[in-house]
Every structure is written in C-alpha cells, then in structure tokens.
Amino acid sequence: MDQTELFEAERPRLVGLASRVLGDHAEAQDVVQQAWLRLHGTDAEIESLPAWLTTVTTRLCLDRLRSRTPVPIEQVDDELAVGIGDPADDVALADTVGLALHVVLDRLSPRERVAFVLHDSFGFEFPTIAAVLDSTPAAARKLASRARAKVAQPASEDRLADWEVVDAFMAAAKGGDLDRLLRLLAPDAAVTADDAAILAGTPRQIEGRAEVAAFFDGSAQAALPVFVGDRPGTAWFHLGEAKVVFDFVVADGLVHAITFRAAPDVLEGVVRRDGGRPRT
C-alpha cells in the first residue's frame, strides 16, 4: 500500500478519535484532512504511520480546543488529584456517562480533555498521551484523573442545566448524531402536539426513545433556541417569526417529552435566547 492508501485506511479511526475529542463530526473531518496535508508535506522519516497520524491529529484537535476558549497552560505536579484514585482502575468511563460527558467535556481544559478521551475512550497508555501533550506520563495520568473526577462527580455549579440538555439535543438532531440523541432521551420519551401544530404539519404523537430519536435525526435545521415562558426550548422560525415551538420537559439531564406548540398565545410569548439567558 502506498502512503495515500495507508492514510485512507486510517481515516475512519482518526475521524472517530477527533470527533470524540472535539464533539463535532464536521470539525473532526476538517482536522483529519489537515493531518493529511501535513503528511503530504513532510519529508520526515515516519517509522509508524498510524502513530504519527494519531499524534498529529490529536495535536490539531488540541489547537482547535485552545482556540475556542483560551485556557492557561496547566502546571501539573505530583501533588495534584489527591484522592482521585488510579485512572487504570476505572477505564471506559467516557463511554458510560452519556450527556454529562458531552457537556462537561466542554468545561475541561484542552489538555484534560485530550488526556481523558485518549485514555478512557480509546485506551491509549499514558506514555503515548504524554508524547502527544509534550508532558510526562505522570502528568498525563493526573490530567486524566482530574478530568474523570469532574465528569463523574461534577461540582454543583457544573451540573447540567435544562438549557444545556435542550441545546445538546438540538445540536445532535441537526448534526444527524443518532447515538447522541438516544443518550439524551429518557426510555419513555414522547412527542405530542397541540391542534395548531398538527395543522401546521407536525406529527400528532411519537412514543419511545428510538422513535423520537429517529424522527429528529438530521432534522430541525431551522430551529433556534428560545424560552417558552420560563422554560428553555427551541422554535422553528420563518421570515423572522416563530411558527412552531418545541416545548421540552427535561429531568435529571434527559429529555422526557417534547410538545410541538403553534397556538397564537404560545407563539406570542416566545423569546429568543443565547444559552441560558434571553437574547438582547
């Protein structure tokens, strides 16, 4: 196999890794393409192409994370993470925490996020992670430990707000991320609609996590975040006016119900929002 064929064989794995680190499939594809351009332009002798591509892709992800929200470079010493425990004793947490992972990951520093995802999701050893982060295995271990503690037992101020659940759900819907939609829905999740919304073309009722996820998968591209009264929701807008509101019921970090509403009195009370605040 030539270099191009070897790269294409690695591409799915690299996209999967970058998607998990960045939380955005399209951005992950862009990063992997950047890795290809770097490979195409390097004259360095590469002993292991998979290892080289993993390192380059991960460092590109790290750059992307840092550009989102500047975070001071951590000074990790041997006294950090006291009482957190050995990361080797609790692997694969990243595959079991559901929505909390997606939201809390955004609150980790870039280096914590990379160390956590590489170790807990993909099983990389700490010497390898240390090489990616230009650090030491001990420092990489403590970064992953610190991240795991934040994910597994978030501080009270880090607990998921209802608007974060709603926005994560809609991002998954627009991005066609069926797996994430399923994680965000309660097992008995249901969709209903008022008479006005049914007349506007929404379904009358959808029952069950799988059915609701399948309906929203890849849809709602024109929906924008709003408040429905004091509840965070979304709405479909046309020519600047809300036409159908998606009214969410959220509990314990999961979507339990969504009601499509298009009654005039409901639409009149819709307020655009940015995150958890009214839009100004």
What does this molecule look like?
The protein is α+β, with helices and mostly antiparallel strands and 280 residues long. Helix content is 50%, strand content 19%. The chain has helices at residues 3-22, 25-41, 49-68, 99-105, 110-121, 126-133, 137-152, 162-175, 178-184, 195-199, 209-216, 264-268, and strands at 185-193, 205-207, 223-228, 231-238, 241-251, 254-261, 270-274, 277-278. An eight-stranded mixed sheet has the order 2-1-6-5-4-3-7-8. Mean pLDDT is 82; it is low at 70-100.
Summarize the structure.
By secondary structure, the chain is an alpha+beta fold. It has helices spanning 3-22, 25-41, 49-68, 99-105, 110-121, 126-133, 137-152, 162-175, 178-184, 195-199, 209-216, 264-268; strands at 185-193, 205-207, 223-228, 231-238, 241-251, 254-261, 270-274, 277-278.
Overall helicity: 40-55%
Q: In order across it, which strands form the biggest sheet?
A: 2-1-6-5-4-3-7-8
Assembly state of the chains shown: single chain
Reading the helices and strands in chain order gives: HHHHHHHHHEHEHEEEEHEE
Break the fold down into its secondary structure elements and pairings.
Elements: H1 3-22, H2 25-41, H3 49-68, H4 99-105, H5 110-121, H6 126-133, H7 137-152, H8 162-175, H9 178-184, E1 185-193, H10 195-199, E2 205-207, H11 209-216, E3 223-228, E4 231-238, E5 241-251, E6 254-261, H12 264-268, E7 270-274, E8 277-278
Parallel strand pairs: 1-6
Antiparallel strand pairs: 1-2, 3-4, 3-7, 4-5, 5-6, 7-8
Helix pairs in contact: 1-2, 1-3, 2-3, 4-7, 5-6, 5-7, 6-7, 8-9
